[in-house]
Amino acid sequence: MDETIVIFAEESGDRVDALLARHIEELSRSAAQRLLDAGRVLLNGAPVKKNYKCAAGDAFVVTLPAAEDVPLVPQEIPLDVVFEDNDVIVVNKPRGLVVHPAPGHPDGTLVNALLWHCGDSLSGVGGEKRPGVVHRIDKDTSGLLIAAKNDFAHQALSAQLADRSLSRVYEAVARGRFREDAGTVDRPIGRHPTDRKRMAVNEKNGRPAVTHWEVLARYRDYTHIRCRLETGRTHQIRVHLASIGHPLLGDGVYGAPSPEKGLKGQCLHARELKFLHPRSGEAVHLVTELPPYFTEVLSKLGAKE
Length: 305
Prior knowledge:
Elements: E1 3-8, H1 16-23, H2 29-37, E2 41-43, E3 46-47, E4 59-64, E5 81-84, E6 88-93, H3 110-118, E7 142-148, H4 151-163, E8 167-175, E9 182-186, E10 189-191, E11 199-201, E12 210-218, E13 222-229, H5 236-243, E14 268-276, E15 283-287, H6 292-299
Parallel strand pairs: 7-14
Antiparallel strand pairs: 1-4, 2-3, 2-4, 5-6, 6-7, 8-13, 8-14, 9-12, 10-11, 12-13, 14-15
Helix pairs in contact: 1-2
């Protein structure tokens, strides 16, 4: 069954295809253009051309086709493997890579790459479309992600996520200067009341969400921060930071709609991962270097203050 959603343009000047790609996470810009060409995007009841420049307040009615049941296939996509044994694989995901197949991204995902790399050795707990996937990170978020090679490991790691013993630490660049050196955002997160593809602080229907942050460096208009997740809600860091007036640099969904410092997509990297090995019980602590896109952004922010 097709699905219809409404997307509002917050500012003027953006092309509609870019707007759709920002607000519908699983949709690429080329897929958005195909929707426009097919007449599936309406403004005031009329189809919209893909080069249309949005005006603030435009309300686009988007009809998304029902997801096709595309079989998962292994694909030879390079993986940066940080840790691997018979139970677990941890990869350093590049920004721009979708974790699992979804509408607009039927293949070319991390799951397709894992199937090639691991063969039949992935857990089935995550479901037919998400074999091995214990937790997810957004397409434009880079960094460490853990997958399970068998159901025993998957269940053990999922339990650690639930009891918060699996620790995830991120680094990010946020807009504005933080006055305090550290703090905590403790606000429930749920679906946005009018935009199903966005999350929001939702006191009435949200689920508990806690993000601890600390300042690493201050710049004139931005702050380099470290965030530790106590919970793992969708878009948690992005929503929480935006809710306190510090959206992430480059975040077109919760922050400025136009690219900043040459970056499209949030400046967010999952840098550290700590967990207990599901079979041995030994502590595993993994840390990655900041990727080039992140260090390039830092170099453009000017002198530290």
